[in-house]
Amino acid sequence: MSVSDSIAFIYITCYITCYIDSTRAGTPDMVEDVVKELGYLSLGTRLKRLGERLQAQTQVLLDQAGITVPASHMPLLTALDRLGALKVGELSEAVGLSQPGITRLLDKLEAEDLVQSTQSADDRRARTIALTKAGRQVMSRAKRIAWPMVESAVTDACAGPGQQLLSVLVALEDALAAAPLSVRAERLRATEKNHAHA
Q: Is residue 195 in some structural domain?
């Protein structure tokens, strides 16, 4: 593991540990948090758990702003708002989700009349997705009312040990894109093997 990778893991672990510890302070006789105690072994699960918590709390703020769209749908609407009409593959790349997952979400958004799909002119097998008028209205309200609240609240939660969280996450994402865990594990096995034979 490179020095930058190690730093990224340390920052993320410290941030999540401080965050979860702060939410549990003063609570007696808590059952051991196994995911937390496993450290790097369960980092993916821990990040997913934190993501789900943030998404659920974001939903509360969306509800308070009168936006009934699930928080999990907002990244797709945001991508279409920022980038304009996109093909499904492009939308998948823009938000980092699999195409089957994107398709399921798009079906729900289309049923709610927030997006519309048209057959691509240059490839009849591809669909081009765009916001409807209702979708544009939702995004306008979200950016005006909900986003400032959400961003301020998350920034406040990240104060202190979590100040470098975004840059750390970028470093971790880049590291895993450059060399997935399977590649890193194989490299570590080879290194250990070479040391054993030395």
A: no
Residue 123's Cα: distance from chain center in Å? 30
Sheet holding 127-131, edge to edge: 86-87, 127-131, 115-119
Number of domains present in the structure of the chain: 1
The pLDDT value given to residue 166: 83
pLDDT tops 50 at residue 3: no
Rounded alpha-carbon distances, angstroms, from residue 157 to 51, 67, 112, 164? 13, 22, 32, 12
How far is the C-alpha of 163 from the C-alpha of 161, rounded, in Å? 6
Structure tokens at 22: 């702060």
Closest of 52, 56, 67, 193 to residue 139, by C-alpha: 67
- What digits encode the pLDDT tens for the residues 68-121? 999 999 999 999 999 999 999 999 999 999 999 999 999 999 999 999 999 867
Residue 48 within a domain? yes
Domain carrying residue 157: 3-177
Q: Say if residues 115 and 132 touch (Cβ distance below 8 Å).
A: yes
